[in-house]
Fold AMP-binding enzyme C-terminal domain-containing protein.
Amino acid sequence: MVSLHPPADLGYYNQDGRLFLCGRLNVVINCFGRKVNPAEVESYLLEHPAVEQAAVLGVPFPEMGEAPAAIVVLTHGYSPDEQLAEELKEFVFGKHV
């Protein structure tokens, strides 16, 4: 096991160099003093038809403390592009507000 962002997310690399996320040490992301639950954001992402799998983790962001960052596996037939990225942001923020 290797900690990707101490002390937040746990994962490992397999022999092929693929990253597998397998757990969390922290259950919230502290963003501008607000507690964001990564599992809640993941559930919002999974409601979108383009998203097959999702993982959300906190990444250091000087002005915010941490910022939520999403790693997604797209459903077959969808391609990653800026338009889809913006659509997913709006989709999640619309549910979170």
Notes: The longest strand covers residues 51-61. The CA atoms of residues 1 and 15 lie 13 Å apart. The two ends are 35 Å apart (CA to CA).
